[in-house]
Amino acid sequence: MSEEVAVIGGGISGVQAALDLAKAGVLVHLIERGPSLGGHMAQLDKTFPTNDCSACILSPKLVEAHRHPLIRVWTLTEAVDLQGSPPDLTLRVRVKPRFVREDRCVGCGECANKCPSSVKSEFELGLCRRKAIYIPFAQAVPLKYTIDPEHCLKINENKCGNCQKTCPADAVDFGMEEREEKLEVGAVIVSTGFDQFDPEKISPYHYGENPNVMTALEFERILSPSGPTGGHLVTNDGSTPRRLVFVQCVGSRDRNYCEHCSRFCCMASLKQAMIALEHEPSIEEVTVCYMDLRSYGKDFDRYRDHVMGKGIRLIRGRPSEVNLDPLGVRIEDVEGASIKDIEADMVVLAMAAIPSRGTGELADALNIELDDGGFIKTMASSDGPLATSRRGVFAAGCCTGPKDIPDSVCEASAAASLSLTLLPNRKPKTLKKPKVRDVSGEIPRTGVFVCRCGTNIASTIDVPAVVEAALKLEGVAYAEENLFTCSEAALDEMATRIRDEGINRVVIAACTPRTHEPIFKDTLEKAGINPYLLEMANIRDQCSWVHQGQPIEATRKAIDLVKSAVAKANQLEPLQTQTAEIIREAVVVGGGPAGLSAARDMSKQGFRVHLIESQNELGGRMDEIHTSSEFGIDRISATSLLEGLDVDISRNIKIESISGSVGDFNIVLNDGREIKAGAIILAPGADLPDCSDKEDRTITSLELDRMLREGTPLPKSVAFVQCVGVRNERFGCSRFCCKKMLEQAKTLVSMGMTVSVLHKDIMAFQKEGEALYRDVSEKGVRFYRIDGEPDISSENISFQSVTDGNITIPVEMVIESIGMIPSESNRDLSLQLKVPLSREGFFLEKHPKLAPVEFAVDGIFMAGCAQYPKDLFESMVQGSAAAAKAAGLLSMKVITTPGQICVVDEERCRGCGECESLCSYGAARLREISGKQVSHIEEKMCKGCGLCAVSCPSNAIEARGFTIEQIDAQIDALLGAER
To answer: Is 625 helix (H, G, I), strand (E, B) or coil?
Structure first.
């Protein structure tokens, strides 16, 4: 039996799956067809709905994966054959030559400077050129040069060879040849992403005839600080555009090309429109042409409203053509009932997402099936919701159909969890931490590394001036600037400088420590110094972003922030960590689809699982919310997932209290029992809005399901009303309702009934949703887009149609499609575990894109509708994703407590209990020592937030890493005081 896993595809899905597996102690082969990791996410400028810099949040993940001792990265590699059955699979791969020795290349770029051959850059989508020997992009991982054999003069004509002659590391090797390797693995995960539909196939849009008609991905590269224009929004002639037009659904939702919805385009175009206005406030007009505005995700409706507040114009309709002279689009404004010609300086086409190049060949090599659209086909089975037609092979991310980043990341983690279920007897591999030198007695030699962050920082702040100012500060031994300090090359260079320059304190002036501090601490440790000898100055979020248009003042502030950081760094001392054993058991709260999925996975992985359900039956709202045919899963088959597994199930039980911390939680139930666990997964589900005051002729979609199951006679005419109780000021879209309505409408119209649908937008974003939408439309279901709430009378329903004004239609029954609202149990669990809630009351994840099932509190994870409404498939996927995170924790023998914690001076403590009452984590508690009440802080539970330290009336508590002396030094530096 092999205990290794192969992950095919090096985009965000593949990288996330590899990291989750590696954290669970599994050796991973991460196989990427191209020369570097990153996928399409590496090409994005910003991500919605937070507008985070895409490269900034992605780069640490790529570096972490490439550096991880249990992840072997195979670039320029393709899978060609798979034999055997799990967990004894043999994957044969073909490795193409890079013609550059990775172990020697230092990424200096001398070779590219001498290369005479120039071709269009694939990463930049042809917007600029690269050399025949190249690195795809600045933050590429691995940051190693590659020779393009199709355009290299040496390979094709035996001429030139400048790169080989110039390379100072003797890394260029034209003797490298293609080879095949065999990998013995227990499971395979496919995460090969997507490609763009070819816009030239839609001739009326004239793509390729005018360079100012571009795809949305090309527009991303123009907006990107690392793109061909350095983030400056300009037309082909270098001028600033005054008018932008975004065209949605180009090639998608179109039976002539791709019938499916590409899912992420609506929000991506809104994001691009807003970012364009931020880049160039002089833009006069931004128009988005759309069919349905599918803002179905968490906080998407709020983001849409925010964008609309910027003055962006929305026109409902699909443009019939792009005009070239003058440039613009012709569109039928469906709501305005008119034909419009809209002039533009740039036209941006949101292209359909299609299966990535080579998907068919890969499917043949792995002997797995494709669906009708050419994507990899997944099917519910005993191995989970992401299983393919071949056992042991799972698929995640956009290779199974278009989806946005958090859904892709969830599927990646879920695929990792499902792979682990095939390796139940594995022995997790443990990693040794590098040794660090003792610098406690050394005079501070501080190194300052200032990041340009492309142009995120450098467009506002004079970075060289900041470096120059840093070199003049007391204790600073070295200072430099980097294009991207978080890139692998910059981190490797930092480690080298720390060793060579004898640096024993580090200041990084860049972005936020919330996302980047871990990767910088890891770099310090690899360089041989204590990771807590680090201080960060946030000159992006707290300076360049908030002071755009004030470069002089922003530069002055950045210098002050660096002064403050250096002053503190000079005072830093090494902090020590402690280790504690982990209880290798998990508690899952909630027996719905997500909880069942999590419990099944963890039990099959070999962990003891305790499932706590507040109701008498397992399954949650499966019968109420989901159709029995969905993915072939119903309540019976879902609850049977746990048959034969060692899962301790508690029904009709509530949690009385929860104490402890990561690795060692204590859960007290209302029947008096206590459960010890190392990890907790919260999946309590969601509630439904109260519809008790509805009209007599009105039923809910749930009641309709019951009537259909029981064969209750139904009237001849019905009207569905969508978004009841949701998509308002309080709650966003519930994701599942539109598809459920379409399934119900299909059933009713097949019974000969007249069916009308009143809606705001049809959120049929699922891969099969668009076909269902088209099917019921062709069967006679009438769709009315409405403004405001309908008026239901004894025989009719009246409403304001956005296209036809006031309409009244006779109906015998009205069906309200109700959404989901947060469960009351969310608030209870939030208080017990000190985990945060969103404004709506759902659980608040650590990061909306890259940590969708994690809390900021260690050891606690979330899944299912408690995080946000979703359908059955998505709930089960999230359950598996949470199981992967918990497995990564429980696979470790011990947990390391952080060094930055709070400590009590028991001599000064007077036992007032103020700290205990304020601690959000339950770490501070009074205890009796020698007859005296004093505070004690549990190291494993403390997060070092410092609330107790600043509140202590006796100054008896100190936050390590934030001592009074260190804070005083920062203040003095800011105020210019002499110490």
So the answer is: helix
